[in-house]
Amino acid sequence: MAYSIAIERTSAPKTKPEVSRIGFGTIFTDHMFMLDYETGKGWHSPRVVPYQPITLDPAAKVFHYGQTVFEGLKAFKTADGAISLFRPDMNFRRLNRSNDRLSIPPLDEELALAGLKTLIGVDADWIPAEEGTSLYIRPFIIATQPTLGVAPSRNYLFMIILSPVGAYYAEGINPVKIHVESDYVRAVPGGVGNAKTAGNYAAGLKAQEEAPQGYSQVLWLDGVHRKYIEEVGSMNMFFKINGKVVTPALNGSILEGITRDSMIRLLTHWGVPVEQRQISIDEIAEAHRDGTLEEAFGTGTAAVISPVGELHWQGEKLVIGGGKTGELSARLYDTLTGIQRGTEPDPFGWMVRL
Amino acid sequence: MAYSIAIERTSAPKTKPEVSRIGFGTIFTDHMFMLDYETGKGWHSPRVVPYQPITLDPAAKVFHYGQTVFEGLKAFKTADGAISLFRPDMNFRRLNRSNDRLSIPPLDEELALAGLKTLIGVDADWIPAEEGTSLYIRPFIIATQPTLGVAPSRNYLFMIILSPVGAYYAEGINPVKIHVESDYVRAVPGGVGNAKTAGNYAAGLKAQEEAPQGYSQVLWLDGVHRKYIEEVGSMNMFFKINGKVVTPALNGSILEGITRDSMIRLLTHWGVPVEQRQISIDEIAEAHRDGTLEEAFGTGTAAVISPVGELHWQGEKLVIGGGKTGELSARLYDTLTGIQRGTEPDPFGWMVRL
């Protein structure tokens, strides 16, 4: 189905930054995609417009009741000069699952993808080509009705903004040290932990801030028993124990990561056994003690893989794999980034070419 | 201490609505208060300006990570024509507790109160005088830094907007029917349930939407054991059982309501025993069965008291007090609204005159 997406081009293109100097999500491209929703009328008026501030009533529900969802994915300039997206259908499907949990009306996933492709086409020369770089894509929906009653909004705005990002590992893939959080809780079954919504991230800032010096992220334990592993920072978590890979099962309180799914499929494809189940921090500490904890890593869109070199748990420091990147972590990282850049075969048809 | 608050008056005052026709939080006054924050500079530039849309970068952190807090309180035109606020110091103190949980820099509570008083002075003729009406006050803070890294913002905006509200009980105080929620969870200790932040409200919309027909609000049970009473909708909950009043203790996952505190102090002042403790839904069902459950009510700024005439719990309907407003609920409502309107003595010095 073809969609009619209006395009208004900027008359004042910005100067593009030097890729080596850009961080994450600080520079935005020349255009953005917008789509409005109004009860009774549905989603309407898809358009690409110059990147610009948005104007909202101070009573807009997003400011007060946090009715908002978002996604994060990437576009790549491949080795042969083409532009491709990594599994964008998965992101828009998850966006609709988040919408459902947040009482936001569902989006036409094909229209969202068409909007994204149109936007990327307009801003194609913003996609960096250097190894390890990409164009980070942030679709999001905010509730805009300006009334203070606690009820779902009658108006929404769906937007996509784009940000060129430099290499996550400028000096090679590097393990991080993680603090296992025992005071704060990220989410609990019955809550919104498996939705990609703003409140989950606001809730996590304090723990990050209070983590001991040197620990860049926190590992969340479940909110009921306070012992089962949930996520690390905003990444899913994997452990390699005695030749097997284990990762927390999708239990309703962790995010259904698309990189997580991709890792599981790659590992299965390679014949590496993967278990999705409950994993307690005690099991990890025990595997560390008896020498069977071989690797640990987080997975997410931004870093792809973040090897964990040390876990800090109740005063104890569990050094994993000598604090170095494990072999399997490196292989997963190289394979997935290779698929994304078109230098490795894509056996699952994950890449969508523009 | 005197603060220098700039005032810019509107050149186009709006027509004031008929009070009988205004709902909750849909009409706003002619002006609003603003205060900016920048890391290194602190909170600065307090000002009253015409009520108007605000302009934000689409990457502003509030849209993506929900770093935001708010408050709700009321101003009244008292029987003698004066303007007074109900316990505003409590709201700004709680705002700072919420700020701490959400990694937002603390606000000067006296400056916030001075800003509120200045704003209300400018919009004084917007305060309705009819019995049961008031001016609803919504202070809130949003994170405005336009970057997508998950970290506390370096910029914030504190605002106060005002909304005249009609009588909550236009036809006399009226009990509500409440559905006891058994699937969704509002909050859990270690989370943000005791902070007044947007994400808590977004998380609750779905349960409200899915509650059976006829039940206007849900009663939340705790997220760990799924049996202890937390809150009802966005109100604190009280029960009168066998002559004693019980209300859930402040356990870290329920909001520390200012109306809740006021009710406890009034009851204690009257010699009615009040217990703040864990209360299971089974205890309530048992008290209902043996005839000792005399009254139930929610408390909050908007309604003051919302008597509960029926609880719906796992298919069973617990009708309370014959579905009518209880004597104690009515006395609490009459006394507190009388204090607010200046027709009853104010033994605790709660009202702050402008």
TrEMBL record, chains A, B:
It catalyses: L-isoleucine + 2-oxoglutarate = (S)-3-methyl-2-oxopentanoate + L-glutamate; L-valine + 2-oxoglutarate = 3-methyl-2-oxobutanoate + L-glutamate; L-leucine + 2-oxoglutarate = 4-methyl-2-oxopentanoate + L-glutamate. Pathway: Amino-acid biosynthesis; L-isoleucine biosynthesis; L-isoleucine from 2-oxobutanoate: step 4/4; Amino-acid biosynthesis; L-valine biosynthesis; L-valine from pyruvate: step 4/4; Amino-acid biosynthesis; L-leucine biosynthesis; L-leucine from 3-methyl-2-oxobutanoate: step 4/4. The keyword Aminoacyl-tRNA synthetase does not apply. One of its GO terms (biological process) is L-leucine biosynthetic process. One of its GO terms (molecular function) is L-isoleucine-2-oxoglutarate transaminase activity. It holds the Pfam family Aminotran_4. Its cofactor is pyridoxal 5'-phosphate. Keywords: Amino-acid biosynthesis, Aminotransferase, Branched-chain amino acid biosynthesis, Pyridoxal phosphate, Transferase. SUPFAM superfamilies: D-aminoacid aminotransferase-like PLP-dependent enzymes. The modification N6-(pyridoxal phosphate)lysine is found at residue 196. Its EC number is 2.6.1.42. Belongs to the class-IV pyridoxal-phosphate-dependent aminotransferase family. This is Branched-chain-amino-acid aminotransferase. The lineage of its organism: Bacteria, Bacillati, Bacillota, Bacilli, Bacillales.
